[in-house]
Structure formats: C-alpha cells, structure tokens
Amino acid sequence: MKNSIVKSFVLSFVLLLSFVSFAQDKVESAEVDANTKPSSYDPLVAQKFAVDSESQTMVVINENENTVEILSRTKDGFEKTKQLLVDNAEGRHDVFKIYVPQSVAVYEHHIVYLASNRDSSFVKVLTLDGVEKEFFKFRGAAQAFSYDVSTKLLYIAGSNAAGYNVFVIDATKGFDNMTIKGSPSYQYIKKMKADEIAEKDPSGAGLAIIAIGTVFLVLILISVVLSVLFGKLMVNIQNKKGQKQPNAVISDNEKTASKKTSDISGEEFAAIAAAIHLYNDEMHDEESTILTINKVAKAYSPWSSKLYNMNPYRR
C-alpha cells in the first residue's frame, strides 16, 4: 500500500514537470514569433525571371528578341499570354542607343522591369495582364533594382565606364501611383582628364609653360646629341681618311707650273701667242664665197591648174 502511494506521487510529479516544461516552450516560441518581423530584404541584383505565387504568372526577359514575355499557368505547363517589345533593334546601327531589358520582378501583383542603354534607363510598371501603369525615365545606365517592403521604396542602381547611378521611386501610395518627385538620387561621373586639368589650371598658363619647356628641352637634347656623338664620329672619319691618303708626288708639269711668271721671257710669250692664234684659225673650215643662182623653169601641167577644180556655173 505504501509503495503504491509513493509510485503514484512520483508519477504525478513527473507529469507536472513535463507539463511545465511544455508550457514554457510554448510561451518562448510565442514570444519569438511575436518579436520576429517578416523579412523585407530584396537583393539588389538583376533578375531575368520573376513569378507571382498567387496567380502563378511568370515573367521572363527574352534577350534574343529584346522582349519581356508573360507566361500564365495552365494544366499542362505555361502558356505565353503577352510579349512586350522593349525597343526595336532590327536594322539599327546605333547599338548604344538601343534599350535592353536588364531586370524584372513582381511586387504586389504588378510587373516591374528595367531597361537601359549606354546613357539612360527607364522603369515600367505593368499589371499581370501586361497593361502599362507607370513609366519613369532618367539619365544614367542602370542594371538592377530592389523593393523595400517596409519603406515602400524602389531602389534602382547601375554602373558604367563613366561612374554609377542610384535612383529611388516612391511607392507608398501603391504601384499604380508611384512618384519620383522628391525622391533621393545620386549620380557619380568620373571626371575626364581635360576637366581635371581645367580645374587645376583654369588660365592654362601652367599647361603652356610645360608645353614650351618640353619643346625647348627636346631641341636642346637633339643639338647635344648631334654635336657630341655625330661631331666626334665625323672627326674620326676625316682623320682616318687623312691617314690612308698617300704622300703626293710632285710631277714635272707641276714643277713647271710652279715656276714664277717673272722668269718667262718675251720670246716665250710671243711663241705662246702665235700657237694660240694658229690653233683658233684651224678650228674653222675654209668656205667658198661664190654664190650661184639657177632659175628653174616649171613646165605647165593641167594637173595643177585651178581651173579644173572650179565647179561650172549653170545659168
């Protein structure tokens, strides 16, 4: 009897502890659920596919056709219900101006897609049936967007070679009444070298001094190189030529030519003058001075008569 009472008491105590532990776990889990808020995190990355879980509508970016396509759920799978052309690219050569879809998403039963080219972007808000509700266009290339459920703001960002851009669209009044007025935005554009130089040297005096100094420095270097290197080279060449030239042998004619004119007598001058005179006379042939004039009689010939070349006059 006594043992049965003890066993029942122990069993009751164990059951009581189990009930208390179970109740405590329930209370803690309820507190955790009450303190936990639904996550509103949406990654700021480009998405090529999006789906609405309630209507089972899927939105796809078709890069081959440059379109945004809406697919509806059927019994056998999906069916394309609408195809939206973002920009006509056929036959165009200005490729940098063609808008290309970058990202798509579905928020609050609305389709949002982003398209951009090299210099600008636009955002369109559509219904699940493909009816356009909102259109926003802004400068700067963008590639992705993200929607913050807690603040009802749509963040758009992108980058290119010139910098990056950040835009915000206010959706507190719903996706049918979005606004971009008063929304924060930021645009960073990398300055070109010419702009940086213009800021540092607005008058251009520094640039002019550098340019003129560079020209004169190059001219000085060229003159030094030519005078030092090529000058020594030419001197060495001339010295080598002088060393190779043999000693000149003075001939008898040169010795005679070096004789002073004061040593020549008058008879020698007369002989030289006579020789020159005879030489000049022999240069011309002897010609006859008799002129003979012969008169040639020309016989008459009817072949040369002009009378036969004239047409007869008809009365």
Automatic annotation (TrEMBL):
Main location: membrane
UniProt-listed Pfam families: OAD_gamma
Superkingdom of the organism of origin: Bacteria
GO molecular function: sodium ion transmembrane transporter activity
One cellular component (GO) term of this entry: plasma membrane
Any one of the GO BP annotations: sodium ion export across plasma membrane
Keywords per UniProt: Cell membrane, Membrane, Signal, Transmembrane, Transmembrane helix
Transmembrane segments: 207-231
Signal peptide coordinates: 1-23
Compartments reported by the entry: Cell membrane
The protein, known as: OadG family protein
Organism, as annotated: Candidatus Onthomorpha intestinigallinarum
